[in-house]
Amino acid sequence: MAQRPGSVGAAILWIFVLSLLLFWLPIFGPLLAGFVGGRKAGSVGNAILAVILPGLVLGAALFLLASLLTGLPIIGFVAGAGGLVLAFAHIGPLLLGAILGALL
Q1: Which helix (H) or strand (E) holds 45?
Q2: pLDDT of 80-97, one tens digit each?
């Protein structure tokens, strides 16, 4: 199978923009954003990287910055953990769409 030319950076950008625009579609928005990002990534490995990397960075940033913003480490930890769970819940449909987009 020949690899299509693709870019992880372009895939991340497309996934980010489409996720922002389609936030109001609970399952289909991230699925569509992942599909387009997977097509832009070119291969399955690049598509998985384009989904997982920003999700992990966003989840870690929410987790760490919540305690800084609250000033109370325990409450910040709990709020950050909630943001981390939401970020991971968003990755599921994105990942499925990205793999399908890279395969088709």
Answers
A1: helix 44-70
A2: 788 778 877 888 999 999
pTM of this structure: 0.79
Q: Where do the structural domains in the chain lie, given as residue ranges? A: 8-103
pLDDT at 1 over 60: no
Residue with token string 């992942």: 34
In terms of C-beta distances under 8 Å and separation of at least 24 residues, what long-range contacts does 84-93 make, across chains too? 84/59, 84/60, 87/55, 87/58, 87/59, 87/62, 88/55, 88/59, 90/19, 90/30, 90/55, 91/51, 91/52, 91/55, 92/30, 93/27, 93/28, 93/29, 93/30, 93/31, 93/34
Can you give the C-alpha Rg of the chain in angstroms?
15
Helices and strands, counts by H and E, the chain:
4, 0
